[in-house]
Amino acid sequence: MGKEKLKIAFYWAASCGGCEVAVLDVNEKILDVVAAADIVFWPVAIDIKYKDVEAMPDKSIDACFFNGAIRTEENEKMAKLLRRKSKILVAFGSCANDGCVKSLANLWEKSDVFERAYLETPSTVNPESITPQTRVKVKEGELELPEIYDTVKTLPQTVDVDYTISGCPPPIPAILSMFTALISGNMPPKGSSFLPDKSVCDECEREKKHTQITEIKRIYEIEDDGVTCFLDQGVICMGPATRAGCGSQCPNVNIPCTGCGGPGPRVDDQGAAAISALASLAASPEVVKQIVDPIGTFYKYSLAHSILRRKVQK
Amino acid sequence: MEQPKVGVFLSDCGKQLSDILDFDALTNFVKNVPNVALIARGSEFWRGNGLKAIVDAIKGGKINRVVVAESLPKLSEVNIAQAVSDAGLNSYLVEVIDLKDHCAWPHRSAPAEATEKAKAMLLSAIERAKLLEPIEKLEFPTLKSALIIGGGIAGMQTAVDLADLGFEVNLIEKAPFLGGLAARAGRFFPTDDCAICIQSPSSDVKTITHTSRKCVYRSGFSEIPNLSILTNAEVVSVEGVPGNYKVTIEKKPRYVDADKCVVCGKCAEVCPVETPDEYNANLNNRKAIYLNVPTVHPQIYAIDEDACKFQECAKCVAVCPTNAIDLGQQTEQVTLNVGSIVVATGFKEFDSSNIKEYHYDEYPDVITNLELARMIDGFGPTGGKIIRPSDGKPAKKIVFVQCAGSRDRRYNPYCSSICCMISLKNASLVKEANPDAEISICYIDIRTTGREHEYYYERARDMGIKFVKGRPTEIYNDEEKGKLIVDVEDALLKRFLDLEADLVVLAAAMVPAEGTAELAEILGLDLEADGFFKEYNAKLRPTETKKRGIYLCGGATFPKDAPTASLHAHSAAMKAAKFLTSGKIVKDQRTAIINEDYCGDCEFCPVMCPYGAITLEPTTEDHFVAKVNEILCEGCGVCVGTCPLNAIELRHSRPNQMSAQMNALLSVNGTSKPLVLAFCCQECGHTAVDSSGMAKMEYPANVRIIKVPCAGIVRVNQILEAYKAGAQAVMIVGCKTDGCHYEVGSAKAEKKMDMAKILLKEYGIEPERLEMFKMVFIEGAQFAEAAKMMTERAAKLGTLKLMGDS
């Protein structure tokens, strides 16, 4: 085999670790990846330091799969570093693409988030009321820590990205087709995604009638027949406004879609798109008023990747 | 595509505008806008030399996009579009704006600010013009034939009109005989002429002169060669598009061969079956083989299959001299291909047994006006005698109860509009024939609004008919006296009365005919809350529907008297003829277009479209995508405003055009006031802006107008984008909910805006920064007020601090 092995990297910024697991969910196919590529950087799995990455020549990494949102100075620094070092940068997963649940922090000020997370939560024991600081003195000296930003951003809002693959985590078939394309050297044009351009409804088998919605219900308030579209049962389902690729996994097991696939390819604001569609279907203005927590419902995964991105700051 | 070369033609409307706006500044501003190839100034560009300048520039190849700032653009646009098209440029590559009514006049006291707004308006028009695309004409052939559903007074007249004009006409009636409700009415008010003529088979066309009869039904309609009549028939399905409908009709058997029956009546003589005669409100029995009345059309006996014993008996078959009776006839499916459909299904009496306190189904002597009309009719069950159905004795004391089931929130809240006159007619006819009859009419209000109607009421009073103002609370049966007692409070004399009666006549409410809702479903038409068919526009298009080629007439839209039903019938015929006469539909391709690659099969647009223009079609991979039917699409964009994947666009109002306009309008402020963006629907909203300008009402120049096809096209995304682009407040100006030119657009927009307000609050943006307004053209003052209010609101709330793109 005269061909030189590819160099690939994985990185996690503000994320939960689910995307790392999703990489392994390709099962034995990971062996094909390892056969074709050397993993040069993957904090969760191999011990390579940031300085080692810094030492790599620019564009020496063939492809970097970057998951996680940009929430801290460190996230941003690594995004920029890996952009410089990589030929291909893939925004991997909902956080990197849309901000995901992390970006719901954009509904608060940073100080509110600190207060809640580090002081108020019942499980917190913090008698000295310490909240994250950029500098802290320890007995060995003063430490410099990365700043946490006011606003969670997406990877494409931070650096130029070559490919996107959304989802929380990305659907396995999409990950597989990406790996296959990479290994075979047949990557699609820049800007492509490895997901279908349609919505979850296109993959959902449930029967749609779309008579008007007269009452909004929570999932526990209905006796789901497993056949009828959730919207027709009065339950909010984000399927219509959510990019396909998951095979409608959630509705298939009787859970409405919550929108992890992010907006459709032509949509700039998943929540507003969902609202425009659902409000049109409501029987009366009173029905739309029954929707509590609209941002949590319609922007659960995409607040950072939206038109306004965050709550107006005081 | 060729690079856009925009010609900008600035009219100062005979110095009216240049006295206010700084035209030199405008010219200099426009000059620097990329792709502007020509700027011309003049006093008018919609006619004469001005229009010639546009034409010459196009012909000379200098420009391929036209922006005209002209007064009264909604009128001048027609001329400009025609001239542009004649010059060889597609007329949709033109954008006409109104610097007078939308800028100079309403902002005349702040000329500098007005000039800045004019710049923004010109920029917006130029940016839109650059992105415009040609729109072609579509042509669809249509059949020169019509189907009329319902053989009552309205349907029959429409059929005759259309047939006389040369169209192939099919009239279907679900009963075995024509005539409908009107034929059973006995006489028509206020002239008391007989109703029976409307179903008369007389066909002596030659003796008919212009003056000989008022009634078209004596003019021989049954013999008109291009009018075919199907009785016992109902529509079961309608497919196709305007101009080419395929209608499936179920025709029940008559069991008598139309070509053989000689109407000798021997069959009825031998028929042993007696069954209640529903035509006469079951006041008598008829045979299982029958004619409703001798003068009925068609002149062919019919067998009532629910009553007939068929082969068990078959006496009629044996006696028929022409072997016309065929007991083996089956229900047939008949398919008709027609260009147009007219619905004339009429109305019926409300079932009075619902009104428990009147005991209609309990006391035989409580009857309805229609039942009384059958008694009055000489062909009726009693030969014209007024009797008590309980014992057949003459009815001397008669009490009428008005508004039985109408103007009553328990049943039908509306006034059925004709029952007062019907009761006056019936009471007068009875009184005339039986002067010693004691007649009282219990009423809430006597409504005699038509010509000669009040006279009719006065005559009834003069005849000695008593009027009691009050709605009876109960009807009792006094068994000892053998009379009915009507309990009523006379509101004028303030006393309780127990009116004795041999016969109580309920002026039953009029409700939609049987099967109205089902037919609406089949035809894809809407019903009003009262259950009658909804007309397209009550004021100007009373016999049209939202569907091209489908018309309504007579009582299908609301109870009507015979004169009004006739008017309606002729109107529907005129509209249908206008639609059918050219043999084709010609329309601009101002339609929605679906990008199938992005359609996610969520199935929202097919249910949102008010015209049924979107259907789901299977694709190869076992999936579905939405498809637009171009004949049916009216180009409103309600679907666009719904699509969660932005897979639908209007050819004449693409999202990129709208967003370019929005950004342009908000890019120039020139005032210290906060920018307000108003999305105005092209129908009512935008014309309200026109009228505020025409009436020289003032509002601040920071209010910027973006014209959209319908308020329903606006998506919540665009509202958020507007704030992001610098709007401090956003207005949506649409039609009144019931007056929406696209049926549902305004209502859909309102719900979206309600939801958007909730969302804005979550974003920390004051919901007061968004408001939906519903206006009509003449409400210019309301627009000016709304614009001022939104400006003040935004100013009070302070500048929105949204996150930048960085």
Note down, in words, how this protein is organized.
The complex is a heterodimer of chains A (314) and B (806). Chain A has helices at residues 18-24, 29-36, 50-55, 73-85, 93-98, 110-120, 172-184, 200-203, 249-252, 270-281, 285-289, 294-298; strands at 6-12, 37-41, 61-67, 70-72, 86-92, 135-138, 141-144, 148-153, 163-165. Chain A is of the alpha/beta class and 314 residues long. In chain A, β6 (135-138) and β7 (141-144) form a beta hairpin. In chain B, the strands form 13 sheets. A five-stranded parallel sheet of chain B has the order 10-7-6-18-29, covered by helices on one side. Chain B contains 20 helices and 38 strands. Chain B has 806 residues and is an alpha/beta fold. Classes of the chains: A alpha/beta (314), B alpha/beta (806). The interface between A and B is large, with 51 and 47 residues.
In a few lines, what is going on in this structure?
Chain A is built from twelve helices and nine strands. With 314 residues, chain A is of the alpha/beta class.
Oligomer: heterodimer
Task: Please report the first level of CATH classification, the CATH class of the largest domain in chain A.
Answer: Alpha Beta
State the strand order across the main sheet of chain A.
2-1-3-5-9
What is the helix content of chain A? 25-40%
CATH architecture type of the largest domain in chain B: 3-Layer(bba) Sandwich
CATH topology value of the largest domain in chain A: Rossmann fold
Please outline the major beta sheet of chain A: 5 strands, parallel
Largest interface: A-B, 51 and 47 residues
Low-confidence blocks of residues of chain A: none
The percent range for strand residues of chain B is 15-25%
Helix/strand class of chain A: alpha/beta
CATH architecture heading of the largest domain in chain A: 3-Layer(aba) Sandwich
Give the biggest sheet of chain B: 5 strands, parallel
